[in-house]
Amino acid sequence: MMCGTVVVVLCAFAVMPILALNFTYETKYLDVPVDHFSFASNVTFRLRYLVNATHWRKHEGRPIFFYTGNEGDIEMFAQNTGFMWETAPEFRALIVFAEHRYYGQSLPFGNNSYSEPKYLGYLTSEQALADYALVIAHLQKDQDRRSPVIAFGGSYGGMLAAYFRMKYPHVVAGAIAASAPIFQFSELTPCEAFSRIVTADYNSASAECAASIRKSWAAINNVTKTDAGKSWLSTMWKLCKPLKTLHDVKDLKGWLSDVYTNLAMINYPYATNFLAPVPANPISVMCSHLPNSSLTDKLLVKSLFKAVSIYFNYTGSSKCLNIETEASSNLGDLGWDFQACTEMVMPMCSDGHNDMFEVQIWDFAKYSETCYKKWKVRPDEKRAVRFYGGKDISTATNIVFSNGLLDPWSSGGVLYNVSNSTVAVIIPEGAHHLDLRESNPADPVSVRTARKFHRKFIRLWLRNYRLPA
Amino acid sequence: MMCGTVVVVLCAFAVMPILALNFTYETKYLDVPVDHFSFASNVTFRLRYLVNATHWRKHEGRPIFFYTGNEGDIEMFAQNTGFMWETAPEFRALIVFAEHRYYGQSLPFGNNSYSEPKYLGYLTSEQALADYALVIAHLQKDQDRRSPVIAFGGSYGGMLAAYFRMKYPHVVAGAIAASAPIFQFSELTPCEAFSRIVTADYNSASAECAASIRKSWAAINNVTKTDAGKSWLSTMWKLCKPLKTLHDVKDLKGWLSDVYTNLAMINYPYATNFLAPVPANPISVMCSHLPNSSLTDKLLVKSLFKAVSIYFNYTGSSKCLNIETEASSNLGDLGWDFQACTEMVMPMCSDGHNDMFEVQIWDFAKYSETCYKKWKVRPDEKRAVRFYGGKDISTATNIVFSNGLLDPWSSGGVLYNVSNSTVAVIIPEGAHHLDLRESNPADPVSVRTARKFHRKFIRLWLRNYRLPA
Predict the structure, then answer these.
(1) Distance (Å) from the C-alpha of residue B393 to the closest C-alpha of chain A?
(2) Within a domain: residue A335?
(3) Is the pLDDT at B22 greater than 60, yes or no?
(4) Is the domain of A49 the same as that of A164?
(5) CATH code assigned at B161
(6) Is B211 in the same domain as B164?
(7) Are residues B142 and B220 in the same domain?
(8) Which of A211, B46, B330, B413 could form a disulfide with B403 if both were Cys (CB 3.0 to 4.6 A apart)?
(9) Chain B residue closest to A382 (CA)?
(10) Is residue A407 annotated as part of the catalytic site, yes or no?
(11) Quick one: which H or E segment has residue B277?
(12) pLDDT category of residue B275 using cuts at 50, 70 and 90
């Protein structure tokens, strides 16, 4: 997992409920072209999608609820989008979760898929949307009365749901786009906005907590200046691999940044399972270990270890802290890193003053170099805005953009009504797409209201749905 | 030229005014990616576009009039779209004609461009639209106040103008889509509709004319049954290459079909130049040679030769009739044939009863085989509807669809208002995108009105144009 402020990864797929596998489905596959936009090759691959038709009234043309899969194994999304499961029966809807190409089992070139640009280059959002259009055509193909489709998605999946409605309004009748940072692109949103929201989350838990974290960077630097200090911290933090170099210290700080960001995204009001389990309201729990920012460096570093333990070792079963856990072995991370290095360029920065992070400037040239070294591709900073419109989405219809204000990704979210039919839903107490999760007794009123709002709009879209004459 | 009823070619590019080269422009080039929708390769090529900035008030953010080039050399479109030239001064607009990739000088792989699918496969409408979006970004890049863009196009270019507004509403403020047969796809329009309109054009010139043509197929078959008959016709018609086989006779009939169709498209109220010049109202002139459908076969065939002479030899300078003229050597034809064999599958047929053509059924399997033999690609019959929505375009905004009712392509045109902001303009006396041509004293009132209507809508779109905050 690399859900950090600088390494821009949307981490929707990382969140799993403690009670996993509540929802059941059939696993299906459809052959789709690797390249929808040329006739240069006719290679196809098997795209995976999950289907539950328990409630569907197919021949009455009842709707299809279609999750536009994002950067991860589609089964994780199926398990973490309880809202679709809970809402489908009322609408007699088919439930579909379509896997995003290059993730999970949907690998266009098998084990070679990630090997070089000539294979990996077809990992783009436009190709994914074209895949989804084919899956839908397939689902509707023997219907006398075509089912309207409602797209759902969270995070990057929410962006895809919204883009799907914008680009294929004839395929999708409406979209619930949860925590979709479609404004998180160059020149649309200040690069520091994300870090500031993370910081605000810790600040509202306690001002001392955010201040402690802000001070901790220097404390870590000071403590680890000497070999003895590195050794002390390594022992104290039970690092699986002791710190040896400055680079190791930098990695540790990077890992910490990611932890803070991840916790801000999954700061849910009930316990969830994210690689290791975390408790309800994890930021508050974590911050309870950081009540005092005026500690000495060593004491601060000590407290910090206790604090972050709730993230990596809440159950107490971890023998040592491995800051490389899941680093780059995870397909989701790898794929998103490529997407961030091509079309999904989301500038991020921090100033250490208005946020609690170390100073990090946004340097596109450097970013581009790093991308080229990793992937042999160059990011196209303006591409997403050129294709999807940036803030110029006034013609979009039938989209609900929902954002939790605890969620750092709300920095790039649509927080105002764009028109009568493209509207914003704000969930003040919500973290990353909380509204798409199954309902829970601990849910705040705002997310319950948001879900009612979603249902109201879905009903409206379906009522207004007309097939052309 | 193969502008026929069965070989589906949109022939906009073939029409040239007798007074050519009235309009002047700078020729420019922009490097664009061969493939906009993957990162598998970073090959680029030079896309040509023509610019006239005489009237443009760039720094006031005055509009860009942008012709979305279609299947031919862009200079032909620049010379045949007088409406843009005549309208630009009033709006202080920049005039741009962008060439469609794989036509004219815009060849992605130079001389190899047409050699095999791995080169030719990037000839798609989606790629062309992405090219245009880049050209526009380039034109706007040093503007403080971004110019709104009005897209214009005729025929396939009109389809592109409409699609451009649908898919890139943030790039294009509105579109004048003239004679754009966006409904000429499978299951949207009966395949015989096109042939019937051609027939109606000849019928309104004179019922005897259409009846003569309907009878002529059998007359030609009868006359050419014997070698002596073939020889007689070859001499009588001054064929450059005498008829020898049944296949030659079939080619002759194919050529005739194309002539009738072409004349229906360019049935303008003033003389124009189409390979060879034709007079004003060419169908009437032609039909004046076919006043009597009850002639004997030989006499009918004789009259027919006189009739079609107005098409291939109006000036009398042609020494012999070459039915292979321009057959497949023309890039425009070749390229369109490929597009018709991939995404632009437009079913065409005739029954010889309700129309004046020989019976020709629409056989997709056979069509697909022919395509595969020619190009090593298979047509995707449903692709255009999947990508562009078919008749399901209710969310489209700011598009004028204009159609002349003399134009056979109006069979696939949008002839009704789709919404308040996507409207139809009918030009009863108009042939193929007459409204985009420069004004002429012989223009019927309906086309003058249509042009006023276009201007009114352009004014409205520009008045309502808002940049996002």
Answers:
(1) 7
(2) yes
(3) yes
(4) yes
(5) 3.40.50.1820
(6) no
(7) no
(8) B413
(9) B137
(10) yes
(11) strand B276-278
(12) low
pLDDT at position A121 over 80 = yes
> How far, in Å, CA of B252 to CA of B217, rounded?
10
Query: At A315, is the pLDDT very low, low, confident or very high (cuts 50, 70, 90)?
Result: confident
Chain A: closest CA distance from residue B160 (Å):
15
Of A382, A416, A444, the last residue of a domain is A382
Residues of A in Cβ contact (< 8 Å) with B122: 38, 40
B208 and B334 in one domain? yes
Same domain, A243 and A295: yes
Chosen for mutation from B30, B32, B34, B38 (greatest number of chain A CBs closer than 10 Å) is: B38
Q: Are residues A320 and A447 in the same domain?
A: no
Tell me which of A31, A38, A393, A465 to substitute to probe the interface with B (most B C-beta atoms closer than 10 Å). Answer: A38
B466:A35 CB<8 A: no
Domain boundary among B360, B382, B404: B382
| CA–CA gap between residue B293 and residue B214 (Å, rounded) | 9
Using H for helix, E for strand and C for coil, what is the string for A122-136?
A: CCCHHHHHHHHHHHH
Quote the pLDDT of residue A330: 58
CB pair distance less than 8 Å for B389 and A37:
no
Whether residues B37 and A36 touch (CB distance < 8 A) is answered with yes
Higher pLDDT, B45 or B318: B45
B469 touches chain A (CB under 8 A): yes
Task: Report residue B373 as tokens.
Answer: 């033999």
Q: Report the distance separating Cα A285 and Cα A110, nearest Å.
A: 42
d(CA B257, CA B1): 12
Mean pLDDT over A2-31 rounds to 58
Q: Between chains, do B40 and A168 touch, taking CB under 8 Å as contact?
A: no
User: What pLDDT is attached to residue B12?
Assistant: 41
| Position B274 confidence tier, pLDDT thresholds 50, 70, 90 | low
Domain membership of residue B20 (yes or no) is: no
Task: Tell whether A133 lies on the interface with B, counting CB pairs under 8 A.
Answer: yes
Same domain, B33 and B97: yes
Q: What is the ipTM of this complex?
A: 0.93
Which residue in the list A407, A410, A411, A446 is annotated as catalytic? A407
Q: Is A402 a catalytic residue?
A: no
B196 and B215 together in one domain: yes
- Least confident span in A18-22, A23-27, B95-99, B233-237: A18-22
Q: pLDDT tens, A194-209?
A: 999 999 999 999 999 9
Both tokens assigned to B454: 């276009």
Of A321-330, B35-44, B413-422, which range is least confident?
Answer: A321-330
Which residues 142-171 of B are in CB contact (within 8 Å) with A? 167-171
Three-class DSSP category at B293:
coil
Quick check: A467 and B122 CB within 8 A?
no
A117 and B41: CB-CB below 8 Å? yes
In Å, how far is B462's CA from the nearest CA of chain A?
A: 15
Residues 6 or more apart whose CB falls under 8 angstroms from that of A253 comprise: A217, A220, A358
- Tell me the CATH number at A197: 1.20.120.980
Overall number of domains in chain A:
2
pTM (2 decimals)? 0.94
**Distance of CA B208 to CAs B134, B203, B205, B297, Å?**
52, 7, 9, 15
H or E, element range at A52: strand A44-52
Give the burial string for B197-208 (b: 16+ CB within 10 Å, else e): bbbbbbbebbeb
Q: Is the pLDDT of residue B331 over 90?
A: no
Confidence of residue A19 (pLDDT cuts 50, 70, 90): very low
Which DSSP helix (H) or strand (E) runs through B424? strand B422-427
Residue A116's domain comprises 26-183+391-464
A9 domain residue, yes or no: no
Residue B21 has pLDDT above 60, yes or no: no
Nearest to A342 by CA among A390, A378, A385: A378
Nearest residue of chain B to residue A120 (CA atoms): B40
Q: Which of residues 7-66 of B touch A (CB under 8 A)?
A: 35-42
- Rounded CA-CA distance A203/A193 in Å is 15
Averaged over B313-329, what is the pLDDT? Answer: 74
Q: Where are the alpha helices (DSSP H) in B266-363?
A: 282-287, 297-312, 331-340
Q: In chain A, what percentage of residues exceed pLDDT 70?
A: 93
CB proximity under 8 Å: A 318-337 to B: none
Residue B118 at interface with chain A, using a CB cutoff of 8 Å: yes
The pLDDT assigned to A276 comes to 56
Task: Specify if B212 maps to a domain.
Answer: yes
